[in-house]
Amino acid sequence: MENIYASSLLFVMLFIATFTIQLANATVPAIYIFGDSTADVGTNTYIPGSTARADFPFNGVDFTHSRPTGRFSNGLNSADFLAKLMGFKRSPQPYLFLLSLPSGLKRHKHRGVNFASGGAGLLDVTNEAMKVVSMTKQIEQFIIVRNNRVAITGPNETETMLSKSLFCISVGSNDIFGYFSSNRTIPPDLFIANLMRQYEAYIKTLYNFGARKFGIISIPPIGCCPAQKLFNATGGCLEGMNDFARAFHFALDNLLRKISSELPETKYSLGNSYEMTINVIQNPAPFNFKDVETACCGAGRLNAETPCNRTANLCANRNEYLFWDLFHPTQNASQLAAVTLYDGPTKFVTPINFRQLAEDN
Ligand SMILES: *[C@@H]1O[C@H](CO)[C@@H](O)[C@H](O)[C@H]1NC(C)=O
Ligand SMILES: *[C@@H]1O[C@H](CO)[C@@H](O)[C@H](O)[C@H]1NC(C)=O
Ligand SMILES: *[C@@H]1O[C@H](CO)[C@@H](O)[C@H](O)[C@H]1NC(C)=O
Ligand SMILES: *[C@@H]1O[C@H](CO)[C@@H](O)[C@H](O)[C@H]1NC(C)=O
Ligand SMILES: *[C@@H]1O[C@H](CO)[C@@H](O)[C@H](O)[C@H]1NC(C)=O
């Protein structure tokens, strides 16, 4: 009897301690994450027939028990590290995973949701054939989550909670890959304008449903990923793609200035993935990278002619590589990116960094 009492008291005390620590540490009530494989923590694993997947080895080789989690990484990705930096014990879980639980979305404790889906783009048609969750669909899923919070905690509490929460979006590379592999009948500037029109609509919809703090991550120098470098005979980056990535960032910067002047109470950070990554590629030594050209997991030239899977070549020293596979960064590179977004200078994240965005009331 006494034992039961003692252990349940201990349990209650532990519970309170954990709960208090969580509340004290997290700088925002919840994080909602949208976008593509740079932020996907397992979404596509729950889509029947999706071909954009990473839920098999050697993905996850550096995760606990070398478990493949659906992340396109040897371990964690930037969405995970950002959540940790914001004071959360773990990354928000995929919407489709939560739906698969018996309790579904109806849990009182709520720290956010990850909607990101590998392969997704700003355009609904991008990688549609691979069965990914488009941005349009991701936003619809968020609205379902929001309505659920309204049902559980009421409209006022939900509104306050959402207004303080972080809405993180990392998307765009797949649209540009799609543009380059199609016949490019649209001129580049018009194509980017189309992408920005979509981006604006997504942000405004989120705003209408309560979002106020936006952490936006633009696209890296995609012409330098091993998959694209294969197409440059002299071994350099594909400059045409990098030009596109810079133009995308420039347009997104202008869009966010415009949106924040139009929508009251909006705050944002824009992470310049291009600058962050090119900075490492041009000068890898201070960051402890020894290889910024080849994929750690893959096969063929640059280890990038095939995707990563259990019969691919796996590098031994993962921390020395910038690229995990033909497209994606290693866990180590993702951590560096997250730390830079969170605490970095205006050269990499403007007008404020993610820490300032999170702590701003
Ligand atoms: C919710 O907010 C509205 C307007 O701010 C207020 O009139 C109402 O009393 C609030 N409801 C609750 C349950 O606090
Ligand atoms: C591009 O054009 C070629 C012929 O001009 C056609 O065979 C191909 O299907 C087109 N590809 C796309 C993605 O539209
Ligand atoms: C290929 O890389 C070289 C640098 O090695 C660069 O000068 C050239 O513009 C690149 N070619 C293309 C098509 O991007
Ligand atoms: C790994 O990928 C290669 C190339 O795409 C393929 O030939 C091979 O069958 C794959 N191996 C497994 C175990 O799926
Ligand atoms: C990144 O690599 C460095 C050494 O190069 C190591 O100290 C650090 O723990 C690594 N971080 C992650 C998250 O892998």
TrEMBL record:
From the UniProt annotation, give the residues forming the signal peptide. Answer: 1-26
Out of the domains of life, which is the source? Eukaryota
Q: Name one GO molecular function term.
A: hydrolase activity, acting on ester bonds
The biological process GO terms on file are: lipid catabolic process
Provide this UniProt record's keywords sorted from A to Z.
Answer: Hydrolase, Lipid degradation, Lipid metabolism, Signal
Under Gene3D superfamilies, the record lists:
SGNH hydrolase
Q: Known SUPFAM superfamilies for this protein?
A: SGNH hydrolase
* Pfam families per the UniProt record, alphabetical: Lipase_GDSL
Q: Which CDD domains does the UniProt record give?
A: SGNH_plant_lipase_like
Which protein family is named in the record?
Belongs to the 'GDSL' lipolytic enzyme family.
Name of the protein in question:
GDSL esterase/lipase
**What is the species listed in this Swiss-Prot or TrEMBL entry?**
Camellia sinensis var. sinensis
